[in-house]
Design a protein that fits this description.
Layout (H helix, E strand, L loop, with lengths): L1 H26 L1 H28 L3 H6 L5 H18 L3 H11 L1 H23 L18
């Protein structure tokens, strides 16, 4: 886990700096700074709008009363937080990733991948609890 976080916090900023310099060469330094500020403000606006609709549609009692799982809503909230963090972070790659997460098709794709990953992880953990031969259980045989 440490290696992944280390790579995340070293590679992503380097990629962001590279792209910012490339954009700065093309459109100029002041326009690049303006672009960074514009995406930050746009990000805050999008997050506020998306968070309002998320919180407005979050009625856990009604969801549980209908027998639905709340995992979709939990993952929506996680993706919203991730997108918010990416949009506030200055850079092109993180902004594009956040905008992808906030689109309906990007959100559904990311949600499916996250839920599938959780499901696989849970199933692999739960497989250790299966007892195929029932050797630890006492069974009553009516023929005895």
């Amino acid at each position: 886990m440490f290696k992944k976080l280390f790579l995340l916090f070293t590679i992503v900023p380097l990629v962001e700096i590279f792209f910012l310099f490339q954009i700065g060469k093309i459109i100029g330094g002041w326009y690049t700074i303006g672009f960074i500020l514009l995406t930050a403000f746009l990000g805050v606006y999008l997050i506020k709008r998306t968070a309002r609709s998320f919180i407005g549609g979050l009625n856990i009692g009604a969801i549980l009363a209908t027998g639905q799982s709340i995992s979709d809503k939990v993952v929506d909230g996680i993706l919203l937080v991730i997108a918010g963090a990416f949009l506030v972070t200055p850079g092109v790659v993180t902004d594009l990733t956040a905008l992808f997460i906030l689109t309906p098709w990007g959100n559904s794709l990311m949600k499916k991948k996250i839920l599938d990953g959780f499901s696989k992880k849970i199933n692999s953990k739960m497989s250790g609890f299966s007892n195929e031969d029932n050797s630890n259980f006492y069974t009553i045989d009516k023929n005895e």
